[in-house]
Write a structure and sequence with these properties.
Elements (H helix, E strand, L loop, with lengths): L2 H23 L16 H12 L32 H4 L7 H9 L1 H4 L12 H12 L3
């Protein structure tokens, strides 16, 4: 390869790195846009939790899924005594209204390889569940 062609090739690579830099710095993925859920109703959230979540979860004890008391603010995949998927345990996320909103909408989209096979499509129902979970201190 001639010197002129090598310079052209290197210049093209430099432009590619400059343009793709932000995506490459994040492992090739675009930055996630975190969405704050609308205000939720605690009583509706409690009713939804009891109707849809208690088959796998409990407030104070681990079942098929981990216990939820103290979930808000806790590092994802860190509750002692519960065996999480490796992907969830290594996620480095923290449970906030925004991460819970994304998780409940599509757990696999938030952490690929996780094991929860349930999602909440309705934004207001997610907000109500999050409002309830935030009371479990």
């Amino acid at each position: 390869m001639g010197l002129g062609r090598l310079r052209t090739c290197l210049a093209g690579m430099a432009v590619t790195v400059l343009l793709a830099g932000p995506a490459l710095a994040q492992g090739g993925a675009a930055a996630r846009e975190w969405r704050t859920p609308p205000s939720g109703d605690v009583l509706r959230g409690q009713a939804l939790y009891e109707a849809r979540c208690t088959a796998c979860h409990a407030v104070d004890g681990n079942k098929l899924g981990p216990a939820h008391r103290g979930v808000m603010g806790r590092r994802v995949g860190s509750l002692q005594g519960y065996r999480y998927s490796d992907e969830l345990a290594q996620s480095r996320l923290r449970w906030t209204p925004q991460t819970l909103n994304t998780w409940l909408q599509d757990p696999e989209d938030l952490v690929a390889g996780q094991r929860m096979g349930f999602q909440v499509d309705d934004a207001q129902e997610r907000a109500d569940l999050i409002a309830w979970l935030a009371t479990l201190k």
